[in-house]
Amino acid sequence: MIKCSYLSLSPFEVDAKSGVNANNQLYKRMSIHYESRYALGPTETKHLDTTTLRQHFLIETVFTDGEIQLVYTHYDRYIAGGAKPVDKPLRLETIDALKAPYFLERRELGIINVGGNGRVTVDGTVYTLGFKEALYVGKGSEEVVFSSDDRANPAKFYLSSAPAHHAYPTKKVTKADAEVVELGSLETANHRVINKLLVAGVVDTCQLQMGMTELKAGSVWNTMPAHTHDRRMEVYFYFEVPEGQSVSHFMGQPQETRHIWMQNEQAVISPPWSVHAGAGTSNYTFIWGMAGENMDYGDMDGCAITELK
């Protein structure tokens, strides 16, 4: 295995390009770039200004040509990011935060391709992933390699990873395999289709869940009415946001909400105590990923729309 050096910022430095603030750390390893972000509670969060709120919760850069971008959050030790192989394959190597000889020694991994056709090779077995197709990779898989079929239209592998206690088989999941739920209506601007891709009943996982919600034309609201689930955290990745349009993501306690304006192919971390909803200036698609002690999709604490503040 190639030994690589790390570049780290002291806890008191701020990197303007990455947006890492005084409570986070930035590391770079060959083709892997990752940040470590510490968790904040609701009391601290409600006092943050716009810039600091974004530094803690917004993942501004998910895809970079020829690199793997990762954010390690201390909310349930969840990792979110993206791999965009262009000229050559990218290998998912371990990062220092894991203190492990390989990335998935004690973790599971969920992958959804949001770009051109590509391949994920897991311990020598090749899985082809087209647009919006998913792959679950179980604990103990030692080598994961990402590649694109066409450098002019590279694959974009959106990644989610959580700690795992058991080794479940690697499995590809397409939209045809997903559990599909249609919710909302055009009248309330939240008509959407939820594709549950990596969830119980579709694939065995330890705690990781992933899915993809597609909003119908004319609808802009997601996850409305809003809810919280104190037993698990979540990350939203917004994509298929048309050029010139944006999404305003809402977070915070139901009576103490905040918003973060987001662009295409950006992600946002949602703590267990926070609502997670959004409204776009157009319809869009987003991938949700969850981890925690509870895997019941319907176990949530609803918030009436009229009670939000």
TrEMBL record:
Q: What does this protein do?
A: Catalyzes the isomerization of 5-dehydro-4-deoxy-D-glucuronate to 3-deoxy-D-glycero-2,5-hexodiulosonate.
**Which cofactors must be present for this protein to function?**
Zn(2+)
Q: Where does Zn(2+) bind?
A: H227, H229, E234, H276
Q: Which InterPro entries match?
A: KduI, KduI/IolB_isomerase, KduI_N, RmlC-like_jellyroll, RmlC_Cupin_sf
What is the recorded name of this protein? 4-deoxy-L-threo-5-hexosulose-uronate ketol-isomerase
Provide the coiled-coil residue spans.
Answer: none
Protein's gene = kduI
What PANTHER family does this protein's entry cite? Answer: 4-DEOXY-L-THREO-5-HEXOSULOSE-URONATE KETOL-ISOMERASE (PTHR38461)
Kindly give the Pfam families that the UniProt entry links to this protein: KduI
Kindly report, in one word, the top-level EC class recorded for this enzyme: isomerase
Q: Which NCBIfam families does its entry note?
A: PRK00924.1
Give the GO biological process terms: D-galacturonate catabolic process; D-glucuronate catabolic process; pectin catabolic process
Q: Species name for this entry?
A: Parapedobacter pyrenivorans
The keyword Isomerase appears for this protein: yes
Q: How is the cofactor bound?
A: Binds 1 zinc ion per subunit.
